[in-house]
Structure formats: C-alpha cells, structure tokens
Write a structure and sequence with these properties.
There is one protein chain. An 8-stranded mixed beta sheet has the order 1-2-3-4-5-6-8-7, sandwiched between helices. The protein has a domain at about 5-135: Aminopeptidase. It starts with 6 loop residues before the first strand and ends in an 11-residue tail after the last strand. About 30% of the residues lie in helices and about 30% in strands. Helix 1 (about 20-35) crosses helix 2 (about 50-65). The chain is globular. Strand 7 and strand 8 (about 170-175) form a beta hairpin. The protein has helices spanning about 20-35, 50-65, 110-125, 140-150; strands spanning about 5-10, 10-15, 70-75, 80-90, 95-105, 130-140, 155-165, 170-175. By secondary structure, the protein is an alpha+beta fold. It contains 4 helices and 8 strands, in the order E-E-H-H-E-E-E-H-E-H-E-E. It binds coenzyme A (COA).
Length: about 190
C-alpha cells in the first residue's frame, strides 16, 4: 500500500480526510442535504458531526487496507472543503471500482465534480493498479449524468434494478473510465 497523498490540478485538490475535518464536513453535508438526499442513502436528517467523524475514521482505515480511497475535494487556493469523491467497491481480482462524487450545494455548477473525477480516476489507474472505474448513476440524476458525459466517460447503458437508495429500487446508467482515456496502459 502507498501512503496518504494529495492530488491537484491547481484548481481543486483532493486530499485524504484528516481528523479535524469533521465540523467542516458536517457543515458541507448539512447545507447540501436537499441535493444529496435523493441520490445518497447516508445523506439524511440523522447526519451529525459524529457521523462525519466516524466516516473520517473509517476512510483512513480503509485507505490503509486498500479497500477504499476517499478524498476531500478542496479549493486549491484557499483549502475550502468543496465536496467529496472516492473509489469504493474495489474488486480485488478484476481490479475495477466504483467512482463516486458529491459537491456541496453552494459550489454546484462550476465543473468541480468533473475535475475531481478525472483526478481520482488517474490516481486509480496510475497508483491503485485498477483497470476500470465505474460511475453508476441512478436514473433521473441528470446533473451527475451530465458530469459523466462532459468528462467523456463511456456510456455503457441503463442497468435495471442496479441500485438501492434508501427504500427505492432504481435503474442506473453505467459509465466507465479506462486507463486508455488518460493515455495510460492498463497495468495489474
Ligand atoms: C452531480 C454533482 C456532483 C455535480 O457536481 P458539479 O460540480 O455541480 O457539476 P457541474 O458543474 O459539471 O454541473 C453538472 C450539471 O449539474 C447541473 N447543475 C449545475 N449547477 C446547478 C445548480 N446550481 N442547481 C441545479 N443543477 C445544477 C447542470 O445540469 C449541469 O450540467 P451542465 O453543465 O450541462 O449545465 C452535484 O450536483 C451533486 O453533488 N449532486 C448530489 C450528489 C450526487 O448526485 N452525486 C453523484 C451520484 S452518482
């Protein structure tokens, strides 16, 4: 496994969550609940500072075990927390993963999610030995679908009953990013 590291395109930075981020993460999630809640099961009225702290503890431990890589998306200039992105559900044999993102409501519409997705996908292929990153988007999530389209992820179609959000069973659009999209060769 490799140490915690920071990624940047000089507009945003991605860095692992640190102890002490919980208040800012809590604020970002709470301000965004109306936008997050329809698409993310964990984003509900029970979200607390303690939830944020537990998430940070878990993600730091998952990083060490190589089972998930979660990053805070921050402003490269002033360090403000803009959102979150992660590689999760890493398949140890087939080397693919889920690529997820959210952006706090006050920062929507600036192309931040796409920048984050490109940075974390490159990390997946260059550092984490993955060969495919899946962006799985619930049907109806137009904003996220636009992100995937704008970064030219491969649109692989609509998968039926692919996702459960809370108590809702949803179809989902499957998009993928591959090492070749970044001029890289898939390496195991
Ligand atoms: C989806 C999401 C990550 C997009 O992040 P972003 O940084 O705002 O992305 P973009 O700036 O590229 O905008 C993407 C689309 O969002 C929509 N959008 C942008 N600003 C918006 C706003 N203020 N209000 C509503 N929709 C908006 C537009 O459709 C836009 O597409 P366009 O650029 O073709 O107009 C963000 O809206 C979000 O966090 N949503 C809730 C969580 C979520 O759905 N995560 C993805 C799960 S698969």
């Amino acid at each position: 496994m490799f140490p915690f590291l920071k990624l940047t395109d000089h507009i945003i930075s991605l860095r692992p969550y640190e102890f002490g981020d919980e208040d800012e993460l809590f604020k970002a999630v709470r301000e965004s609940l109306p936008d997050l809640n329809p698409w993310m099961s964990w984003a509900n009225d029970n979200y607390s500072v303690e939830t944020a702290r537990t998430f940070i503890t878990l993600t730091r431990s998952y990083w060490s075990s190589g089972s998930m890589y979660a990053f805070a998306i921050t402003d490269a200039n002033n360090g403000e927390l803009l959102g979150s992105c992660s590689l999760s559900h890493i398949h140890p044999l087939y080397r693919f993963c889920n690529l997820g993102y959210w952006v706090r409501s006050s920062q929507r519409g600036k192309g931040i999610a796409g920048c984050a997705a490109k940075l974390i996908a490159r990390f997946a292929f260059e550092k984490a030995s993955l060969i495919r990153a899946e962006i799985v988007i619930a049907a109806g999530n137009t904003a996220s679908r636009r992100v995937a389209q704008k970064i030219r992820a491969h649109d692989e179609g609509l998968l039926l009953n692919r996702m459960v959000i809370g108590t809702r069973v949803c179809d989902a659009h499957m998009f993928s990013l591959l090492p070749s999209d970044f001029g890289l060769v898939a390496q195991l």
